[in-house]
Amino acid sequence: MKFEEIITDRLILRKFTQESFDSIYSDMSQDEQLVILGLNSIEKLVEEKEKYKKGLSTHNKKFLYHQLIDKKTAAIIGWCGFHTWYTDHNRAEIGYGLFDDNYKNKGIMSEAIVSIVNYGFNNMNLERIEAFVSPNNTPSIKLLKRMKFEKEGFLKHHYFDNNKMDDSIVFALLKSEYK
Length: 179
Hints:
Layout: E1 5-7, E2 11-16, H1 18-27, H2 30-37, H3 42-54, E3 61-70, E4 76-86, E5 91-98, H4 108-123, E6 128-133, H5 138-146, E7 150-161, E8 164-174
Parallel strand pairs: 5-6
Antiparallel strand pairs: 1-2, 2-3, 3-4, 4-5, 6-8, 7-8
């Protein structure tokens, strides 16, 4: 299987879409699935397959994300992309994460997010990129502000995490304001 990739100084960003997962789950062995998805256990693979079975895309909502691969080690170290892409409205919610704390505070996500935002505006025809962040997630808030996302509001009890409802700060970046 051939994946579209974006190359940065330290990273390879491997693109995943609904079609990628269709092919992975229908054409690859379980061992191959573990490797390509960067998973370390059958339990994690079962979790990912369950998400897939429940539906990752709908008639007007899709996702598009990239695995973050360390160029030096070829290790899958995280992800960055659009987990909620409203195709009818040319807007998407960005999300990101690093799997290994050893990669944090090294500018890895800043490097990745620049390419992902560019891809969203230039390749996906997005007019708006949104981010919903916990008020306690200071590193993410700083990252979004560095990327010129603007704070637009506050949502009470917006998502369920660790057995409790949590709030979100809403950030957005418009194509017309992006440079």
